[in-house]
Amino acid sequence: MKNRIKELRAARDLTQAELAEIISVSSRTIISLEKGQYNPSVLLAHKLSLVFDCPIEEVFLFGEEDGI
Amino acid sequence: MKKNILISVCGLAAGIVLILLAVFVFTGSTPLNGACYGIGAALLVLSAGNLVGASVKKAVETPETLKIQEIEEHDERNIRIRERAGWNTVRIFTPVLCACTLVSALAGAEVYVTFAACGLVLLVAGLSIGSQIYYDKRL
């Protein structure tokens, strides 16, 4: 699943470590999310959308390859 | 943490008791003597290792390291990695264990070796099926 985490994080001037600390996950999880290697749980996606103050579908880009 | 230390202390005591039993009660070259020595030594070393590890961990522990440890432990990616690693281990280990059991039976190994291997196969299969039923109901 593609996402805009890197772009949104940069726009808010946050480092990967800072974002990881805010949502209580490891920095490695943020790296994997940004690379699109890891699909988060609904809870983590919700936390990210709250941090970036935008809906989940603006953070995560759902496409046909995701079966949607 | 306190529970782990208590378990280690109990293990240490049990190990010492087993070794003392082997030295003073079940003397001679008998299977019981060997079992007491083996299990006692294993318990003693593992428990002592746990206690030393816990004391070192406590000495270097800070609120910062505790927080990092907490995050790493509850990180959902780490949880998923642990689950997949566990599942893959069972997936690979089960046929290997079955093959070893078959080879031991066909190669004419001692009966107790084959029985022990069969027991392990049954234990792994039982745990796997039991876990699947448990999580099927729970999740």
Could you walk me through the main structural features you see in this protein, from its secondary elements to its overall organization?
The complex is a heterodimer of chains A (68) and B (139). Chain A is mainly alpha-helical. Chain A has a single domain (2-57), classed as lambda repressor-like DNA-binding domains (434 Repressor (Amino-terminal Domain)). Chain A contains 5 helices and 2 strands. A two-stranded antiparallel sheet of chain A has the order 1-2. In chain A, helix 2 (16-22) packs across helix 3. The N and C termini of chain A lie close together (11 Å). By secondary structure, chain B is mainly α. Chain B has 5 helices and no strands. Chain B has helices at 2-24, 31-60, 63-74, 76-106, 111-138. The longest helix of chain B has 31 residues, at 76-106. The mean pLDDT of chain B is 89. The interface between A and B is small, with 12 and 7 residues.
